[in-house]
Records
---
Amino acid sequence: MATLVTFHAHPDDESIMTGGVMRKAADEGHRVVLVVATRGEKGEIPEGLLAEGEQLADRRVRETHESAEVLGVSRVAFLGYEDSGMMGDPANDGPDTFWSAPLEEAAARLAEILREESAEVLTVYDDFGVYGHPDHIQVHRVGMRAAELAGTPRVYQGSANRDRMRQAAAAAREAGAEIGPDEDMVIGKPEAELTAVVDVSGYLKTKRASMRAHRSQISEESFFLAMPDDKFGEAFGTEWFIREGQGPGVTETDLMAGL
């Protein structure tokens, strides 16, 4: 058995991006570790959510631990940086934000965990951070460097299949949905650049339960939880990755194969 470390920017990212592979690895007997760069301080605060004196970051940490239980996580660690907000937000360059953190410093923090865990597999995000969020881009930079420092042998860059998303958008438009032009959809990577695809359709209920744990950010009326089961399966039943040195095309269907 081996150790999988999944590195994410904010609480709830793990549910959306790698919830399936995490629960699958745990069910197969592997150790699963979740590392989160920030506590998601810049998240939405629905009216009436917080008790008097309660901070959103504290609520989101508790939600992360609840999600981790659902996903079979053995250890949760936070790197201690502040949420940077969306790209272009003045908060991006704050002294304690993840976006402004020195690369070597942040990578050393993550590398220490990778060494402690003797991690064989690490997941990060692609170089665009999947959709351009500064903290997600920084996860890519920090994660790739940390793997070098720790000697972690397998690094998978979580992404999305841009081609299939555009096809789905086109189909929705033809059905009468009012959505933007698919050429504006800059999310994930073209299918030709993806090298690993994991079928997690057997873990859809688990992924939804993990998302539901993050109730401060993912309400029952949200895009994630309100969609019908079949549409949810289409959107979240597959998790896509890029592993340098693999391809062209998909060459792997299991991040933990052979371990």
Note: The CA atoms of residues 172 and 179 lie 8 Å apart.
---
Amino acid sequence: MALIGADPDHRHYGLFQLPCGHIIRRQYLRVERAAAGKHALGCEACREARYAEEAEVQGWTLEGPDTVGRPGYRSYRHRCGHLQNVSVGNMKHGDVDCSGCGQSWSSKPSFIYLFHIDLPTGPILKLGYSSNPRRRLRQQLGIAKTVSTRILRTVAMPTGHTAQCEEKAMHSYMSRMHPEMIVPKTVYGDAINTRTEIYSPAAQAILSAQLDDIAARVPDPDDPDDAPDDTSD
């Protein structure tokens, strides 16, 4: 790596040429640490080129950054024309299904659900997604038949992939903003067959507001007049 010159806009940064030939802007201190073997200096251009090659092998084209800004994800276009956000790791290993033309769970309609469950340890809320929320509640969560349950809310999603992305965003928000409302596994134990996605009843208003937002943003798969102009998530 060779120093090309100082960054004209910041005295702590310089312009360096990597062995691959690309020019990068880096903080001098980071370069010194890299030279000492404390970390590596990556090339963004080479990295994105590698991601593009990995996507091409799987029948996708790298379009750019993830449309919602998640690190470790990129926006890819499938050969059918569908645009989709996918983690770079999943794309590399081919662990991805097109939500536009695929036939797996990710391309079929789904729902985000909110359940109220009166466990022996106390009432809880369960947030998740499923193509069949009623079956999920009574057959797949391992809840005793004597336990009282209610489906508080379901929001229809055009694909399982969309449902998963929206649900993960809700859990991330709750973890950042309302961690005190998350009920740990140690509280309910084996009374329900899940380790996460459980909230106290106090979270109902917050989760309902988020579901309202999702319902307003995401097209209703059963309403042809609510279809999007393109196939992006």
Note: Strands lie at 2-6, 13-17, 23-27, 60-65, 73-78, 83-87, 110-119, 122-130, 149-157, 198-199.
